[in-house]
């Protein structure tokens, strides 16, 4: 089997999405998986660093709007919510609807609560892991 080149990886269509009916809003939304950069940024925003430079707690403020702003897209995959003002307006929508959609966004993105806890340094690490890179 031939190894992929950077160009081939760059051309791969690897983002997943799910169209979800939202009766409360009168239509359907598209939830797309987060990119690696989006996922890292989301996790960084979710962790509060203490005065000692170590993770202190998880920031839940605006969590649903922050997740959905990265995942709600149009048919071309362009984000619907980009500016801070737009994201704040999204966060003002019904909390139950936002939570339901955020759960789907997390699932589609492979972002579990365990991943957030790992980023905050609160999860147990597994022993015996190894890497083939230095």
Question: Overview of this structure, please?
Answer:
The protein is built from six helices and five strands. The chain has a three-stranded antiparallel sheet with strand order 1-2-5. Strands 3-4 form a two-stranded antiparallel ribbon. The radius of gyration is 17 Å and the shape is globular. 43% of the residues lie in helices and 16% in strands. It has one domain (15-120): Phage tail assembly chaperone gp13-like (rbstp2171, 2-Layer Sandwich), CATH 3.30.2220.20. Helix 3 crosses helix 4 (84-91) and helix 3 (63-71) packs across helix 5. It is of the alpha+beta class.
Mean pLDDT: 85
Number of strands: 5
> What are the segments in which pLDDT stays under 50 over at least 5 consecutive residues?
123-134
Shape: globular
Kindly state the percentage of residues in helix.
40-55%
Main sheet strand line-up: 1-2-5
At the fourth level of CATH, the homologous superfamily is Phage tail assembly chaperone gp13-like
Structural class of the secondary elements?
A: alpha+beta
Topology-level CATH name: rbstp2171
What count of structural domains? Answer: 1
Kindly estimate the percentage of residues that lie in beta strands according to DSSP.
15-25%
